[in-house]
Design a protein that fits this description.
By secondary structure, the chain is α/β, with parallel strands linked by helices. The chain has three domains: 123 residues, Response regulator (Rossmann fold, 3-Layer(aba) Sandwich), CATH 3.40.50.2300; 170 residues, P-loop containing nucleotide triphosphate hydrolases (Rossmann fold), CATH 3.40.50.300; 143 residues, no CATH class. Helices cover 45% and strands 12% of the residues. It has 19 helices and 14 strands. The strands form four sheets. Strands 2-1-3-4-5 form a five-stranded parallel beta sheet, sandwiched between helices. Strands 7-10-13-6-14 form a five-stranded parallel beta sheet. 31% of the residues are buried.
Length: 477
């Protein structure tokens, strides 16, 4: 049976401790709490934790000193700081010392759920690196050649441009380069350029000074400062607005940035890795991307092929995801049936590795049979036309003639697409997925391939339509 993860919450505020405890327990994770740093350190020395959340400002021993105590004791555990008072300098110092992240009070439960999920994923990756020499999962000669090139590139300081369709594993490759470089013990900071609103891109990249604009109550460092000494990943670089590309070019050329509202440049030592699913050369020709920036980024170009062009990797990855999500969800490890394997190999995978991962995770959660069979994959939806002969084998199961009508009706009612709008199908898929995972929004968002914020917005939309959304959610949500 899969052992639950263990999280320690250290905070002198009783209400904050209880609130965090409720949120984390709702995720199916064991939680211990400590009233101060001394209590937290004592608990951390007696019991192994997979993640620690600590207030930064506490009496007697502050959060930063607590973090140093953990490091000096040789405890390698991701630590996140939560505070309403910390200066930016203190938070940055904690990150440079190796802290996992920090968030500022007040915050909704979803932020904690996302934080914990990321933190525990980090822990799993460390275990994988220590006990599994593969580090990355592939079998095809094509990918073997790519990672061989990446290993050679890692030892250099060259800027790298990684191209390929969405979901092919461009960020995995970027992290591989960082973790095998001389900068591996320094920060790896990723920013999704497509996810940042255009009016916030500059402040996210370069930070701002206090008073730079309305609401700027204190100085905030940008991603480049947070990555100082390490690597910054500019994910989907083709989405950066044209007027900001010149400032990016300056960072590449001069190794310095200017905060919004700042009066002098700030030196930064970062290695830049950029990714894109666009043809940047074509974007240059169309006037959407600066030619000089393109050539600055394209010092070394690595193209990651789509999954449909490296089918040797499909079943290898599927087996890996099966084991991974069986452990995470406390499920018995099931094998893929021969028919399920054929379905996986025949499918075109427009969403690439990301789609394959979500498909296997969904199958692990929803499968009711001894093996994973085609219907568990939900690759084409459960749709049956009038001429579908359901009395024949469906995957590995043979349906008795007497049960044909019942099975057919159940399947048609479960997810019939014909004559329905995309919005209706999307709504049903979201609500059914929530129901299947016991109302856990973080888990549902992962399976659906969307962010928790997007899921929350969809649920609010459904509430406004008079739908009783809360019945699909966990009681404590």
């Amino acid at each position: 049976m899969f052992d639950k993860k263990h999280v320690l919450v250290v905070d002198d505020d009783e209400n904050m401790r209880k609130g965090l405890e409720v949120t984390i327990k709702r995720m199916g994770i064991n939680v211990d709490t400590a009233v101060d740093a001394a209590d937290g350190f004592d608990k951390a020395m007696k019991k192994r934790y997979d993640f620690i959340i600590s207030d930064l400002k506490m009496p007697k021993i502050d959060g930063l000193s607590f973090f140093k105590m953990l490091k000096n004791a040789g405890l390698d555990v991701p630590v996140c700081f939560i505070t309403a008072y910390a200066t930016v300098e203190t938070a940055v110092e904690a990150l440079k010392m190796g802290a996992f992240d920090y968030i500022v009070k007040p915050f909704p439960p979803e932020v904690v759920e996302e934080l914990i999920s990321r933190g525990l994923n980090l822990g799993k990756h460390k275990i994988l690196r220590n006990n599994d020499k593969r580090k990355v999962i592939y079998k095809s000669k094509y990918m073997a050649e790519i990672f061989s090139i990446a290993m050679d590139v890692a030892s250099s300081e060259a800027t790298v441009l990684i191209t390929g369709e969405s979901g092919t594993g461009k960020e995995v490759l970027a992290r591989f380069i960082h973790e095998n470089s001389r900068r591996k013990n320094n920060p790896f900071v990723a920013i999704n350029c497509a996810a940042v609103p255009e009016n916030l891109v500059e402040s996210e990249f370069f930070g701002y000074e206090k008073g730079a604009f309305t609401g700027a109550e204190k100085r905030k460092p940008g991603k480049f400062e947070l990555a100082d000494g390490g690597t910054i990943l500019l994910d989907e670089i083709g989405e950066v607005p044209l007027h900001l590309q010149a400032k990016l070019l300056r960072v590449l050329q001069e190794k310095e940035i200017e905060r919004l509202g700042g009066i002098k440049p700030v030196s930064v030592d970062v290695r830049i890795i950029a990714t894109t699913n666009r043809d940047l050369k074509e974007e240059v020709n169309n006037g959407n991307f600066r030619e000089d920036l393109y050539y600055r980024l394209n010092v070394i170009n690595i193209h990651v092929p789509p999954l449909r062009d490296r089918k040797e990797d499909i079943l290898y990855l599927a087996e890996f995801f099966l084991e991974k999500y069986s452990k995470i969800n406390g499920k018995k490890l099931k094998a893929l049936s021969d028919d399920a394997k054929r379905v996986l190999l025949d499918y075109d995978w427009p969403g690439n590795v990301r789609e394959l991962e979500h498909t296997i995770e969904r199958a692990v959660i929803l499968s009711k049979d001894e093996k994973i069979v085609p219907r568990d994959l939900f690759l084409h939806g459960l749709v049956f036309s009038n001429d579908f002969d359901i009395s024949k084998n469906y995957g590995d199961e043979t349906i008795e003639e007497d049960n044909v009508d019942n099975v057919k009706n159940n399947r048609e009612n479960s997810f019939e697409l014909k004559g329905r709008s995309i919005a209706e199908v999307e709504k049903e898929l979201i609500l059914n997925t929530l129901k299947d995972v016991g109302g856990n929004r973080t888990k549902a968002a992962e399976i659906l391939g969307i962010t928790v914020r997007t899921l929350r917005n969809k649920l609010n939309e459904y509430r406004s339509q008079g739908i009783d959304v809360d019945k699909y959610l966990e009681k404590s949500n």
